[in-house]
Specification:
Layout (H helix, E strand, L loop, with lengths): L2 E10 L12 H9 L7 E4 L11 H8 L7 E11 L2 E8 L3 H11 L4 E11 L5 E13 L7
Antiparallel strand pairs: 1-4, 2-3, 3-4, 5-6
């Protein structure tokens, strides 16, 4: 049985985050508009990481691919409210969805995060964003979703 979590924050806008990037509202608004209507964003438990010795091209291909064996959520209704990107998150009845449900039940702090391809200037300002999906990550903040 799937679980629906409404109005989950998937990105903070207009301030420098932990990554040193600043996501302007207008850039992310355009990125959200470019998601094809009716397209489902299936998210993974964790985001791809570049392996030691892995070429950037190989990592980039993996970054653009959602691995079905890692899918645990479905994100819908992306929108911007008060400098935050919100989404409705459905925890799916998959093997990783079951793991995610257990993680939440155990009180482990998680968050949801956009995975996108970016054009970033040296100051950290994002000039362009293409949204790939929404992933589940360990949260730097306390609390459940």
């Amino acid at each position: 049985m799937s679980i629906l979590l409404m109005d989950q924050v998937v990105e903070q806008l207009n301030h420098k985050g932990c990554s040193g990037r600043i996501y302007p509202v207008d850039v992310i608004e355009e990125s959200i508009k470019n998601i094809k209507e009716g397209r489902t964003l299936y998210g993974e438990f964790g985001s791809p990481k570049q392996h030691p010795g892995e070429t950037f091209d190989n990592f980039y291909r993996r970054w653009l691919t959602v691995n079905l064996d890692q899918v645990c959520i479905k994100a819908s209704d992306l929108r911007i409210v008060d400098d935050k990107v919100l989404a409705n998150i459905e925890i799916l009845d998959t093997s990783m969805g079951t793991v995610l449900q257990k993680v939440i039940e155990d009180g482990i702090s998680i968050a949801f995060k956009l995975r996108h391809v970016l054009d970033v200037v040296s100051t950290g300002l994002v000039n362009k964003s293409i949204i790939v999906t929404v992933d589940v990550i360990a949260s730097p903040l306390e609390g459940k979703p």
